[in-house]
């Protein structure tokens, strides 16, 4: 099983600032990496797939990068609606696995 | 608009069984793979099981293999998860999710809560 490790667990950021979230895979997943956002009491929603392709309707302030084992989600200028928990997911092989999540909170 | 509506959750005793359903609409159900993903209270996401568009291939997390069975009925546009030998650690909100071209998920249901407790 591929283990996905996200860091940090919690990120405190002021509105308008940049947030950088990391996700590391225990072995290469090529570019088979997705990012999701989850707000309290809601289902997750897709942000990024293929490591760097924004899903439909996702604002340009969200960007993804990386391949192999190291991945980054960057939110260029945090808006109030971006404070949430973010998960990475590898779909390179079975079983699929998620990271443990990074909570982005208001500083 | 894609809609996924889960049902069937509830309180069940350890060792018991439960069947979850996910009614799909707004897309050609038979063309897309589907999965179940769960989230224990206050915890992160855990992929549970997946099924190909045709239903011919199924996949399971080690934690549920041999106890859970995923299936789909394209005539009813419905995804199922049959859960048996339930354990306390199966307590979670269970989401059904529609896969995109690969097994990442572009649509999710609102979830159904399964509580395993005596």
List keywords for this structure.
heterodimer, A: 107 residues, mainly beta, 7-stranded mixed beta sheet, 4-stranded antiparallel beta sheet, 11 strands, 0% helix, globular, B: mainly beta
Q: Label the overall shape of chain A.
A: globular
The SSE string of chain B, one letter per element, is EEEEEEEEEEE
Given as residue ranges, the uncertain stretches of chain B (5+ residues, pLDDT < 50) are: none
Rg of chain A is 13 Å
Unreliable sequence segments of chain A:
none
For the largest beta-sheet of chain B, the strand count, sense and barrel status come to:
7 strands, mixed
Biggest chain-to-chain interface with counts: A-B, 23 and 22 residues
- The end-to-end distance of chain B, rounded to whole angstroms, is 40 Å
β-strand number of chain B: 11
Oligomer: heterodimer
Q: Which structural category fits the helices and strands of chain B?
A: mainly beta
Rounded average pLDDT of chain A: 97
| Integer average pLDDT of chain B | 97
Number of helices of chain A: 0
Query: Order of SSEs of chain A, N→C?
Result: EEEEEEEEEEE
Summarize the SSE layout with pairings:
The complex is a heterodimer of chains A (about 110) and B (about 120).
Chain A: E1 4-7, E2 10-13, E3 19-25, E4 33-38, E5 45-49, E6 53-54, E7 62-67, E8 70-75, E9 85-90, E10 97-98, E11 102-106
Parallel strand pairs in A: 2-11
Antiparallel strand pairs in A: 1-3, 3-8, 4-5, 4-9, 5-6, 7-8, 9-10, 9-11
Chain B: E1 3-7, E2 10-12, E3 18-25, E4 34-39, E5 45-51, E6 58-60, E7 68-73, E8 78-83, E9 92-99, E10 105-108, E11 112-116
Parallel strand pairs in B: 2-11
Antiparallel strand pairs in B: 1-3, 3-8, 4-5, 4-9, 5-6, 7-8, 9-10, 9-11
Explained architecture:
The complex is a heterodimer of chains A (107) and B (118). With 107 residues, chain A is mainly β. Helices cover 0% and strands 50% of the residues of chain A. Chain A has no helices and 11 strands. Chain A has strands spanning 4-7, 10-13, 19-25, 33-38, 45-49, 53-54, 62-67, 70-75, 85-90, 97-98, 102-106. In chain A, the strands form 2 sheets. In chain A, strands 2, 4, 5, 6, 9, 10 and 11 form a 7-stranded mixed sheet that branches. A 4-stranded antiparallel sheet of chain A has the order 1-3-8-7, with no helix packed on it. In chain A, a hairpin with a 3-residue loop joins strand 5 (45-49) and strand 6 (53-54). Chain B is mostly beta strands. Chain B contains no helices and 11 strands. In chain B, strands 2, 4, 5, 6, 9, 10 and 11 form a 7-stranded mixed sheet that branches. In chain B, strands 1-3-8-7 form a 4-stranded antiparallel sheet, with no helix packed on it. In chain B, a hairpin with a 6-residue loop joins strand 5 (45-51) and strand 6 (58-60). The mean pLDDT of chain B is 97. The chains are: A mainly beta (107), B mainly beta (118). The A-B interface holds A 1, 32, 34, 36, 38, 43-46, 49, 55-56, 87, 89, 91, 94-101 and B 35, 37, 44-47, 50, 59-62, 95, 100, 102-106, 108-111.
């Amino acid at each position: 099983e591929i283990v996905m490790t996200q860091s940090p667990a919690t990120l405190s950021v002021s509105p308008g600032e940049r947030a950088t979230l990391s996700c590391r895979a225990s072995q290469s997943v090529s570019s088979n990496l997705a990012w999701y956002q989850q707000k309290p009491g809601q289902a997750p929603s897709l942000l990024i797939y293929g490591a760097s392709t924004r899903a439909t309707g996702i604002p340009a302030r969200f960007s993804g990068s990386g391949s192999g084992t190291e991945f980054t989600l960057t939110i260029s200028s945090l808006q109030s609606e971006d404070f949430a928990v973010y998960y990475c997911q590898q779909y390179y092989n079975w079983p699929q696995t998620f990271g443990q999540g990074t909570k982005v909170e208001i500083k | 608009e894609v809609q996924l509506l889960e049902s069937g959750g509830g309180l069940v005793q350890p060792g018991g069984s439960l069947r979850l359903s996910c009614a799909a609409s707004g897309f050609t159900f038979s063309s897309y793979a589907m999965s179940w993903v769960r989230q224990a209270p206050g915890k992160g996401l855990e992929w549970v099981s997946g099924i190909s568009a045709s239903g011919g291939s199924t996949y399971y997390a080690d934690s549920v293999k041999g106890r859970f069975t995923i299936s789909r009925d394209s005539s009813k546009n419905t995804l199922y998860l049959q859960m048996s030998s339930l354990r306390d650690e199966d307590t979670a909100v269970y989401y059904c999710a529609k896969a995109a071209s690969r097994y990442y998920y572009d649509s999710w249901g609102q979830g159904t809560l399964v509580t395993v407790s005596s």
